[in-house]
Amino acid sequence: MLEEAKKRDHRKLGTELELFTFNEEIGAGLPLWLPNGARLRGKLEKLLYKAHRIRDYEPVRGPEILKANQWQTSGHYQNYKENMYFTEIDGQEYGIKPMNCVGHIQIFKNSLVSYRDLPMKFFEYGVVHRHEKSGVMHGLFRVREFTQDDAHIFCTPAQVKGVIIEVLEFVDKLMKKFDFTYEMEVSTKPKKAIGDDAFWEATTKGIMDALDENGYSYGIDEGGGAFYGPKIDIKILDAIGRKWQCGTVQVDMNLPSRFGVEYITEENTKAQPVMIHRAILGSFERFIGILTEHYAGEFPFVIAPTQVIFIPIAESHVAYAKELRRELLALEIDSEIFDKNDSLNKRIRTAEKQRVPMIVVIGDNEVENQMIALRDRRKREQSNLTKDEFISMLKQIKSEDEI
């Protein structure tokens, strides 16, 4: 298993496949995404964006730096300050956000919200910064800047159980999409916490009741909750049985109380909503690191940085390869043309090392008859298709790209 883990190490594969790099001149824990990695990440973002929208989440975006008094109100200043970066602007202290919740609270407060609007779901690919110690940083798994697939759901107390189950169904679909099995843990009150014991007991019981009533099995992580509320942690198992902490669902009545968040009830009075923090991937950086090791760099077609490599046998076949590449780009499918002055076998071997899902060899027959000679690396199959059959097959694969 250790040998297999070494082969799958995302830092090694990240270099081989030119996904990302780190540079001491830039700073520790600050990844640089190379074109291949940025394409992979962009595909994952797009897949997840669509999945959020069909579930009625609204996209929002908050600033990356906020006045320190916001972090004092939230409790981050008192309970999380050692993990944050602060600076001074015009004589006032500002903090770079380690989380996205405060911005989403202020977006909610921007307009008058009725009970009819609830649950209200905001999501953001939120860039956050946390002061990790040098000794604990490890590739993409623990970095100082990362992007969360973050969402905050504002709902009534009666809606909490339904929202939790809906989020867990979302989690399940995503995990199945990438062939992960997973476990859940309920994390209880930590030593550093805000809110009284009655809040913690009631909220923790509410989470467990939602899981019990819907037949979910879970473990208990004593003291593992966020400082503002208990949570459900999603721990995924990869292809060689290792466990990784990724997504989380947190129930919070503390921050709405601290920021005076309200909605108008059916009786035309004001009431405080419950705020549910949730991330499904956790962070794009960590999840891509896990995906890289899980698939050993053999990414599924839907997120592969390069999905097709065209290998024209001779110069006279390059124009047809370029025509195919343009058609694929219109379908949002990334491809490359390997037309260097190397032998055919060497170019095929180089393409194989790139772990690209499909390799297409183009010769006289393919150009003359508008055909392609396909090597499907995932299915380990070779076939000859017309250009139209090839395009139709790719459209069909694309149509199945949904969570």
Word description of this protein:
The chain has 2 domains: 2-294, Bira Bifunctional Protein, Domain 2 (BirA Bifunctional Protein, domain 2); 308-399, 3-Layer(aba) Sandwich (Rossmann fold), CATH 3.40.50.800. Helices cover 36% and strands 25% of the residues. The chain is built from 14 helices and 20 strands. The strands form 5 sheets. The chain has an 8-stranded mixed beta sheet, sandwiched between helices. Strands 17-16-18-19-20 form a 5-stranded mixed beta sheet, sandwiched between helices. It has a 3-stranded antiparallel beta sheet with strand order 4-6-5. Strand 9 (181-187), helix 8 and strand 10 form a beta-alpha-beta unit. Helix 2 crosses helix 10. The mean pLDDT is 95.
Q: What is this structure, in a nutshell?
A:
This protein is α+β, with helices and mostly antiparallel strands. The protein has helices spanning 2-8, 10-16, 35-53, 68-74, 76-79, 101-109, 160-177, 197-213, 254-258, 284-294, 318-330, 344-353, 364-369, 387-399, and strands at 20-21, 32-33, 58-59, 65-67, 85-89, 92-96, 120-129, 145-155, 181-187, 219-221, 231-237, 243-252, 263-264, 270-271, 274-279, 308-312, 335-337, 358-362, 371-376, 381-386.
Topology:
Layout: H1 2-8, H2 10-16, E1 20-21, E2 32-33, H3 35-53, E3 58-59, E4 65-67, H4 68-74, H5 76-79, E5 85-89, E6 92-96, H6 101-109, E7 120-129, E8 145-155, H7 160-177, E9 181-187, H8 197-213, E10 219-221, E11 231-237, E12 243-252, H9 254-258, E13 263-264, E14 270-271, E15 274-279, H10 284-294, E16 308-312, H11 318-330, E17 335-337, H12 344-353, E18 358-362, H13 364-369, E19 371-376, E20 381-386, H14 387-399
Parallel strand pairs: 3-7, 9-10, 16-17, 16-18
Antiparallel strand pairs: 1-2, 4-6, 5-6, 7-8, 8-15, 9-11, 11-12, 12-15, 13-14, 18-19, 19-20
